[in-house]
Every structure is written in C-alpha cells, then in structure tokens.
Amino acid sequence: MSVASPNQGRDLAWLLRGLGEQVPVIRGSVLLSSDGMMKAADGFDRASAEHLAALASGLFSIARSAGTKFDDSNEVRQVVTELKSSQLYISWAGYNSVLAVLARAEADPAVVGFEMARLIKAVRPFLDTAARSTAATSDRSRAF
Predict the structure, then answer these.
(1) Among 67, 66, 112, which residue's Cα sits nearest to residue 87?
(2) Cα–Cα distances in angstroms (integers) from residue 118 to residues 15, 47, 66, 100, 131, in the given order
(3) Phi-psi category of 3—alpha, beta or left, where left has phi over 0 and alpha has psi -120 to 50?
(4) Where do the domains of the chain lie?
(5) CATH 3.30.450.30 applies to domain 11-129
(6) I need a surface site. Which of 4, 41, 54, 66 has the fewest CB within 10 A?
(7) pLDDT category, 13, cuts 50, 70, 90?
(8) φ/ψ (deg, to 5) at 64
C-alpha cells in the first residue's frame, strides 16, 4: 500500500478501496470524524455509509467513556462487535478520526486488525480531522 501525498488528502476513498482489496472479507469501510461525519467510504451507498459513520461514532464514544471511568484513560485502540453474519471493527485513525470496517463473519480478527493498523500507520497525517471552529458550530446550530 502506498503512502498518500498531500494532493490526495481529500480523496481518501481509494485508501479504503485498497484495504478491501488487501482483505477480501471486508464488506465495506468508512473513515469518519470522531463526531460521526463521514469523510470517505468504500463498499456502501451514501446512506448506509453515513449510517455506519453515526453508529461507529457512538460506539467509539461509549468505549472512550468506559475507558475514562474504568481504565483512567479515554484512549481507545479498537472496538470489535460480532453480529450474526458480520464483524464490525472501529479504530482510532488519527486526530479526531475513526476508521470503521464491516467484514464478513468468517473474517480473521487478527488479519483485519493488522491491516487496519497498517493502513492507519502508513497514512496517519492524512486521516486527521481538524477541530470544528466555534463560528462553524454556531452557524450550523442557527440553521436548525
């Protein structure tokens, strides 16, 4: 997997596509900001990708809260959820960023986790999400 250049910072879907090619049991993946905004996706239609981003953000937030309460740290390495016919992996991917991967039930968690970590390590600076400005937040709240 090649390292991203600064010119490719916004189009990150190709990275997720590469992850799916490396690990064929991956059904799809979403890169999201820690507050649930989808940044890039592969393997899902837009509505499903946004839904997964919201779910992943919530699960990641719950894990951080558990860490704060029971582990004296809000650092979360990975959240793994086993569903009936799928496995959901959620990992920290850089400043304010999270990577969610949905794999088939027969996926080897060690392989999926390793490839996710390898991707994140290779391109971490390009996965960071800038903090939202106060002005942008207040403008958004006025729209509702």
Answers:
(1) 112
(2) 11, 28, 26, 14, 25
(3) beta
(4) 11-129
(5) yes
(6) 66
(7) confident
(8) -65, -40
User: Cα separation of 113 and 101, whole Å?
Assistant: 10
Rounded to two decimals, what is the model's pTM? Answer: 0.80
Q: Hunting for tokens 């509702």 — which residue is that?
A: 144
For 32, counting Cβ atoms within 10 Å of its Cβ (0-12 exposed, 13-18 middle, 19+ buried), the class is buried
Q: Look at residue 133 in the predicted model and tell me its pLDDT.
A: 67
- Spatial CB neighbours of 124, under 8 Å, sequence gap ≥ 6: 93, 94
Q: What is the pLDDT of residue 6?
A: 40
How long, in residues, is the chain?
144
Q: What pLDDT is stored for residue 144 in this prediction?
A: 43
Q: Is the CB of residue 62 less than 8 Å from the CB of residue 144?
A: no
From residue 51, how far is each of 30, 48, 64, 75, 87 by CA, in Å? 10, 5, 20, 24, 16
Q: Residue 73 contacts by C-beta under 8 Å, 6 or more apart in sequence?
A: 67
